[in-house]
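Try this one yourself first.
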């Protein structure tokens, strides 16, 4: 969930040690990994061809990143926050794999085989080496991202971003927008203010509420259960401002360069959230696990959806969480967090699908439901991500054992007694609807004759696209 933010300033010990090479020399040597990873991936794209290059690029880019992470963690500085080259490599890995899938979609697959979002992002020609390196290694997003699609980046580089809105849900070409180039000044100032507040909270409150105190022996022995629950939530709440700071600053840097313009809202106000990575208000007010994940590290969530969830034929939720764990790094705490996240997500989905419709009306009952689900979501999120912060196996299990694995047990019981799999049902329903509508279209074509073939075919395509959208929304 860190989204490539493990890199930071060198530790004080690293700066004070005499034999260590200069920071500039280390950074220059590590930067070669960016060119090696990007260069070999581009060669794969050219040599393998559009039919299978997305698979080879995905395996190589993710594998190269994993090898670098293993080297950094288990050879150099386990658990230490030092000048870290693997953070930028996480962003480059996203860009390489995203572009490979977008080229495969645009140059090999047929349009009718693509989802609406895949059609909107499809790349119809092979990028030149200059375009490719500019996209993967440009200065605006090399350190902390955020990820952007290749089409959005090229539109910005060619100076067309202020004249056109980004691809919509229909997957059509960009629509004409205002011709005057909007100023990002207001958006940049607002985001810098958020950065300042986040940094202030991180330097003051976060230091006084460490997550590690949740496994302190004296605290575990003396604190009551309500105290443990409240401190768990507050300590994880205090750990978030550093991510708010880094992601918002990265967003502001891109906006200051003119990148990130989405278009105009209904009031004619310029929107500079094309590549924004988080929505703080929605995160803190989340009433479901999905709502939290949809608003936290947004661009990484979109990447996981586009390269894994939409393309997985078996257990897409599990595969997506496993990919997220591998991409984040090799600390055991990451895998504990994301495996726990699988249970929490599936259990929350089952609970929501079975009970939410009973609490829609009246408004007072809906408000009570929202309050209860907010409390449960915040506790579940905090419980899930503790190993992500602690990193190691022993302290992570110390925390979970102090809570008697209660949320793990509750999640498993929910899945056992509420085995509702809305996603699978949605897929089955979607396939049946498509099949029946396809048969109706065939019968209608035969009855209407050759002259009405074009109109009937359009109706069929529209019906199938509507069914596809409905299925994806339910998922």
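Now uncover the answer:
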């Amino acid at each position: 969930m860190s989204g490539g933010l493990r890199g930071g300033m060198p530790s004080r010990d690293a700066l004070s040690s005499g034999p260590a090479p200069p920071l500039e020399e280390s950074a220059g040597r590590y930067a070669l990994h960016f060119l090696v990873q990007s260069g070999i991936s581009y060669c794969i794209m050219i040599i393998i061809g559009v039919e299978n290059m997305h698979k080879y690029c995905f395996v190589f880019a993710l594998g190269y990143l994993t090898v670098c992470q293993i080297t950094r963690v288990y050879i150099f500085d386990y658990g230490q926050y030092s000048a870290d080259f693997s953070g930028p490599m996480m962003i480059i890995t996203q860009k390489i794999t995203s572009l490979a899938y977008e080229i495969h979609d645009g140059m090999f697959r047929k349009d009718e085989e693509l989802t609406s979002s895949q059609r909107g992002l499809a790349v119809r020609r092979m990028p030149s080496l200059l375009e490719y390196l500019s996209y993967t290694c440009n200065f605006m997003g090399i350190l902390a991202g955020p990820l952007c699609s290749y089409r959005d980046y090229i539109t910005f580089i060619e100076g067309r971003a202020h004249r056109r809105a980004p691809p919509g849900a229909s997957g059509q070409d960009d629509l004409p927008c205002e011709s005057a180039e909007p100023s990002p000044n207001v958006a940049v100032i607002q985001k810098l203010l958020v950065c300042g507040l986040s940094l202030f909270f991180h330097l003051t409150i976060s230091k006084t509420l460490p997550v590690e105190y949740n496994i302190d022996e004296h605290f575990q022995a003396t604190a009551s259960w309500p105290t443990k629950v409240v401190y768990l939530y507050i300590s994880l709440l205090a750990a978030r401002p550093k991510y708010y700071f880094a992601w918002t600053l990265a967003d502001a840097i891109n906006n200051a360069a003119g990148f990130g313009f989405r278009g105009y809202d209904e009031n004619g106000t310029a929107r500079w959230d094309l590549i924004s990575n988080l929505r703080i208000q929605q995160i803190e007010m989340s009433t479901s696990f999905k709502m939290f994940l949809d608003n936290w590290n947004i661009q990484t969530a979109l990447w996981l959806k586009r390269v894994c969830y939409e393309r997985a034929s078996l257990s897409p939720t599990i595969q997506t969480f496993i990919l997220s764990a591998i991409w984040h790094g090799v600390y055991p705490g990451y895998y504990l967090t994301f495996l726990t996240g699988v249970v929490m997500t599936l259990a929350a989905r089952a609970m929501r699908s079975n009970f939410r419709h009973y609490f829609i009306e009246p408004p007072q009952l809906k408000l009570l439901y929202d309050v209860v689900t907010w409390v449960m979501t915040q506790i579940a999120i905090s419980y899930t991500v503790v190993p992500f912060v602690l990193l190691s196996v022993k302290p992570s299990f110390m925390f979970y054992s102090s809570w008697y694995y209660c949320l793990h047990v509750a999640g498993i019981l929910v899945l056992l007694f509420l085995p509702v799999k809305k996603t699978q049902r949605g897929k089955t329903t979607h396939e049946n609807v498509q099949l029946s509508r396809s048969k109706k279209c065939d019968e209608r074509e035969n009855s209407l004759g050759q002259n009405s073939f074009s109109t009937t075919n359009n109706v069929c395509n529209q019906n199938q696209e509507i069914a596809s959208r409905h299925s994806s929304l339910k998922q």
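Discussion: Residues 65 and 340 are 24 Å apart (CA to CA). The longest helix spans residues 363-390.
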